[in-house]
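Q: Convert this sequence to structure tokens.
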Amino acid sequence: MSRDLFDDSTMTFGEHLEALRIHLWKAIIGLAIGVALALCFSNHVIVWIQIPVTEAMKRHFLPQEIQQLNPNATSLWEGIKGWFSKEKSPAEGTDGAAKSEPVLPPTLDRMTFQIDVRELAMKLKQAGVDLAAADKPADEKPLLIEAAVDKSSLNLLMAELQQSQLNPRTDGADEAFMLYLKVSFVVGLVIASPWVFYQMWLFVAAGLYPHERKYVYTYLPMSIGLFLGGSLFCFFIVIPYVLDFLFGFNTWLNLRPEMKIGTWINFAFMISLMFGISFQLPLVMLFLERISIFSATDYREKRRISILAISIISMILTPSDPVSMMLMMIPLLLLYEIGILLCGKGAPKSPFEMQTA
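A:
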């Protein structure tokens, strides 16, 4: 007599479906709350995401004397620390970063104009002022003087215009709004992820043995930590070096890229996601070792082949530049060695080993 898949289960198939429906609805409600909260501050997130590309553009395509003005320049860390500061002084802006008065460099602290004195005298004479200097031969060279304006507001205006030309742009009137919704959804998913994972775990854990649950408790936090570590490593360390290399190549070819905000955010999200996934390497190695496909000895003996495989994976998961490839490959080589250690005696036993023990 054939047995049904759920003969040994304490819940019927319909009860499993009902439990799945309840947990899905709870996860969706939590996600909606997370997105609603993200709508309140996603504008700050979008500003932060622009900081690496804006700073790189200024380093490569803004004249040095204009960079010295930089009245509103804020580093990535300064922007984050300023936003999270509890008390903001009146001199701070809405993003929490202190705004100092612009200091003009020596090359821009004076703006000079050349004026033809005779032409000026002629205009004054036409206005009714009798000046002998207004009478001059037509072919005579102009008599020029210089008039300087110290710390001219026009200087600052020109500097701000040049800096604004390097900020990311939108393609249409609706792109900013759609981008705001997209970023809010992603941020809301991050906020609600503990609750969503908890609901998923409640459904899955009902079908696991106690020792299997312990196995998940051990390695799930490690997986989340590796993913977050890879994403943060990419955003704060890898992306600035990648932008310097790519923009330097543009400068070498006498080109200036036109940055679109949608393209940039997709690039930043995608490369950070790839780094987060690639940092799961030690756990993948441990899983393959626990199901008896590879052993720690195999990983040690096949180190050269593994280095080649890691190089190919780094080339596929990163943009076309060699800098991002190397910045992914080097941490993965370190994580490969960590994976070998995890596959040793110190790693907890798998459910299969516990059952056979």
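Residues 110-150 form one domain.
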